[in-house]
Model the fold of this input.
Amino acid sequence: MNTIQIYDTTLRDGTQSEELNLSTEDKLRIATKLDQLGVAYIEGGWPGSNPKDKRFFAEMQQYQLSTARLAAFGSTHAAKVSAENDANLLALIDSGASVLTIFGKTWDIHVTDALKITLERNLELIRDSLAFLRPHAKELFYDAEHFFDGYKKNADYAISCLGTALDSGADLLVLCDTNGGTLPEEIAAIMDAVRTRLPEARLGIHAHNDCELAVANSLAAVRHGAVQVQGTMNGYGERCGNANLCSIIANLELKMGYSCLPEGHLERLTDTSAFVAEVANLRCFKRQPYTGQSAFTHKGGVHVAAVRRNPRTYEHIEPELVGNKQRILLSDLAGQSNILFKAKQYGFELDKGDPFVLELLTELKNREDQGYEYSAAEASYELLVNRVLGRARNYFRLISFRIMDSVFTEGMEPFTEATVMLRVGGMIEHTAATGKGPVNAMDCALRKGLERFYPNLGEMRLLDFKVRVLTGSVREDGHGGTAAVVRVLIESGDQKSRWTTVGVSYNIIEASRQALEDSINYKLFKDDQKKLTQAIREI
Amino acid sequence: MNTIQIYDTTLRDGTQSEELNLSTEDKLRIATKLDQLGVAYIEGGWPGSNPKDKRFFAEMQQYQLSTARLAAFGSTHAAKVSAENDANLLALIDSGASVLTIFGKTWDIHVTDALKITLERNLELIRDSLAFLRPHAKELFYDAEHFFDGYKKNADYAISCLGTALDSGADLLVLCDTNGGTLPEEIAAIMDAVRTRLPEARLGIHAHNDCELAVANSLAAVRHGAVQVQGTMNGYGERCGNANLCSIIANLELKMGYSCLPEGHLERLTDTSAFVAEVANLRCFKRQPYTGQSAFTHKGGVHVAAVRRNPRTYEHIEPELVGNKQRILLSDLAGQSNILFKAKQYGFELDKGDPFVLELLTELKNREDQGYEYSAAEASYELLVNRVLGRARNYFRLISFRIMDSVFTEGMEPFTEATVMLRVGGMIEHTAATGKGPVNAMDCALRKGLERFYPNLGEMRLLDFKVRVLTGSVREDGHGGTAAVVRVLIESGDQKSRWTTVGVSYNIIEASRQALEDSINYKLFKDDQKKLTQAIREI
Done:
């Protein structure tokens, strides 16, 4: 099987993305994860351009990568100094990376107008930079910036840049579609032309997504002889992003018969994709091919019925191949068959026409009309199902509460206090707590009141808190934005699992209360279920 | 110039998206907007499948579309009834749409396993359905579901489905890659094969994005003879979405020399894309090619310098061609050149090395470290610049405030009250207001206190309110989710413009206060600037 080298530049070109800002610690975690995925190269940064990247390479010297080689990126040397006196090249050598990647100009107009040097001088920069670095690198790559645009304007000069790099010791020439404006058939034709003129060269492709064609362009290049593909996880990168390696790896391995990752590693793809988003503090793009949360999600009633019979009817691959999974959504397009399918997941075998199914369907539709969203809040849904079935009890009642945020003197941090009155069984608990903001204060007061009855709440942590304004309501409400209905999603966890609950109200405090109460009830319900299962087993 | 018909199915196939839920009113607004953009066809829904779509078509009978034709979608008739007794086909006729699009099976295994009928019977369904509808439709299209998968398994049967549709009156045959698993070279080869076997047929393409190739596949089909492209705005659709018409239209018109929209309408693309997202209450995908907020955004210092000299160095097209615009980001990669560029936009001509530039750079970096995000809050940034310059004054001081949320009896709606003490000039204003939730109450109290000093605040409205939890802080904070730092963005507007302000704190109330204060100060600052300009003109 032919192997294609995957060259990941999430940590360098990816961070040019508007949204992607990574600390050195973030970069180390991502590098480790990419190594576990099994990419061939990890481009860690541009040590000559900023101290953060320099620190990253220093730290990486203590890491032993298992599959990947670490690459450092830099430009050809500055025109006014020689290669051996160029700080940027010296920083590359200092980086300790075994792979060095040098980018240079190949588009004539960039040489004369941006660098303001002669075409001949640019060839010298390429030659001297690579020759100087050659002894210091296990592998030396040349990134031909703007190659396709340059080739279209002045093919001979673009080729002579490549030829110079090759003669000066480059192991591989990477053709870059820097502005992302090239079409797949142009990529194919130019790849063919380059191979004709430089038959001995090994070629790579570096594509950007400005025409939504970066994946297609990368695959076209592979079909026309590229042995390396550069890109980023989730397609992060400046403007519209770099070529998305998640899609490229899956397409090459599952559709085109190439090998990119070590045997069996493809199923780590979805987890890696989500991990990078999480570390970067970016919400995952749900519709992302292969690895997205929606990639194998079915909503329409007709499709759900067909997919339940045979997943291949509306799924092009088995989601497990890339570590993803099938999801069936609850929504207003959902019919009874979705409800039955979901109920089965929670262990209830129900029949169509069961009055319980109809009651649940009505309750769900009402709540979805109000803005509840159960596809992202499975714990609230599970509680709802069990309540309608009469199988889940309320572990406490919140009789009254008051939350106060005060600033007494201009410029002071607010003081926040919550009081809650709870009934647990026949007992009344009345307590108060301060907190960092109103939701945190309520959370602290609730736990303080409940932990003496339910010590297992001590294991539980709130992990994430999301607020969404339901804009639909803004439009209809004369009071404007701040009176809009908000949906709060709270993610909680203990040592064993994580769950998400939902609340909806025009008042963020009230919406948070609903989600907090569900979260606590779910923890207690789940622990009770476990005890029950345990007890039954012991009989 | 060759024309390609754009067939928009945002309102039908798009709503199969996990995230896209549209009311009838939403659908009417989007249809009007798509007509203004100038697509050839708007597929409004499946009137036989749900009452909401039926209502949409009834309403649409009162609209006069200027460019687009309205299409209604449905399936071939049910196997157990005849065409003239099929409720789904009758609903199509009732819809009043001038274009009817019928989908049917073309993959043999779907016929025998899903429909559970013979291959011959399926051909009858296609034939009878189309023949029955033919007299009722100005144009009649046949959507060949799973065509490419079907062709790969049983080419003869797939072709005979197409041939039957053609013979029964279909004006156009749409080849669907329903599961989105097909590669561009397969699309090309199969398009060629179909044209050889059915040379008289007009063909269309309907692609899905499961391999991140929907745009490439649509373009490949056009290159191989398709005259119609089906897709959705922003690529909405089930799983990974449909082919994104925004990218397809721009690529066809700007890169491939086809005409898709009326002359001059391409520049409406970005606005249409944002409008659909807004009505659907979905956040825009920033990195979306052509129409995304990041599509022509520059962050890296090197790129910014080059782009300021010549935009084409890092932009594949002029953003204005699709109604988008260039943005220069403030970020930790930004150097002085970005600050100078931004300052110029606000009318300050500053020099590199100006102590003001350095002060502003320091202030910005500090605030970005805390989580302030000025790329989405230009009004807060403009205020900051003017404050550092000593050109913006504070129109009021909030000396103290208190916000109280109370529920006295279980199950009651919370009662929210805000008190504020303000100093305006030498006067003290102490007042209180109730509101729908804490932020709304504070907003009401602030306006109540300020409107007697600044009556022009009466024109101002809060339009949107966004809360983002900065997850970075969640990880570092032992208290967990609800104590995380939050960033609040508030969008406000008056009759003339809209502006966005930002606040950051671990307390959502405090973050909202900052954004509200900025928003009010910005309105007053802007109106003062206008008066000043007016006064100068009158001298």
Notes: The CA atoms of residues 153 and 214 of chain A lie 21 Å apart. The first strand of chain A starts at residue 5 and ends at 8. Residues 5-279 of chain A form a domain with the TIM Barrel fold (CATH 3.20.20.70).
